[in-house]
Amino acid sequence: MDGVPAPGSGPGTIIPLVSLNAGTDGTAQPRNGRGGSTRRRPAFRTGLLAAALGAGLPTAPASAQERPGLDDVIGRAAAYVAEYVDELSNVVMEEDYRQTYYRDYSANPAHSQLVSEFLLMRVDDAGQWVGFRDVVELNGRELENRGNRLVSLLADGRASAIAQARRISEESARYNLGETGRTFNVPTYSLFFLHPANVDRFQFERMRTGRAGCGGVETAWDVSFQEIEFPTIARGFQGISLPARGRFCLDPASGRVIETEFELRHPEVRGERPATEASARVTFGLEPRLNLWVPVEMRDSVEEDDGRRTVGTARYRNYRQFDVTVSENTGPPPGGNGGPR
CB neighbours of 286 closer than 8 A, spacing ≥ 6? Predict the structure, then answer.
């Protein structure tokens, strides 16, 4: 089931197109007091969203930043992500994604290589975001009748921007190897959890790993997270909620995201699908030409209890500016269709 916001979610909500299913979509449920979690939210979140949604983080003296608390770091990370997705929505990148599928413990594995364009698309009128890939090449063969499809779909005002994004995402997902249908395997997925509109769904804790830092950065923090709000962002077979958990590697001074890692577990559905574990780890690096930290590598896996397993590695390159902006209620932007530049 994809993670389009349920009725009542406010502007700025990121829309992850995400699923972990066996071919049957569930139905979205409203987020409200009756259908939500009964667990109490951690007290440290008080005032965090207000700070994260402000115009920006004030510059503090170095002494004030030496010992930030967890509230401070998560607030800075939320503010960073809110600004970051705005900047990244102007960037399209090339993705080289290689997957290996093991049907069982003894069979020879199947392999695939996808070359795609990846874009974090902004939907202006709704103040929302969608991360998706458009597959260009499969196993060295360029897909036919593709043309400049990414640009034409994004600029086509005849259908809603969200519907266009879902169409591309679901079509691209059919190239995934394995039996488990999924659309969460995109490098920006875990950033959804840190966006100010979504951060209150999670509980955070600084990890005491004994390491000097994470992501090769001595001062960075490892912060674990667990989704505690229901219905969850990710949905599975017949709309079942799939709470996410994982960790972020964060720069405590700026909130910059250096690494992300998340896990989803789908319980067994008797007669329909085995229990399934999914995970993805993404590293970010500085792209000097754009002066922006961008996805560099994603490693993901899907493991089913019956022995089937899919592992993948995606690497990113050829980052360039993109000048198409999509509106939910309007036609193509003035001046033509735009495109990479």
Answer: 292, 293, 294
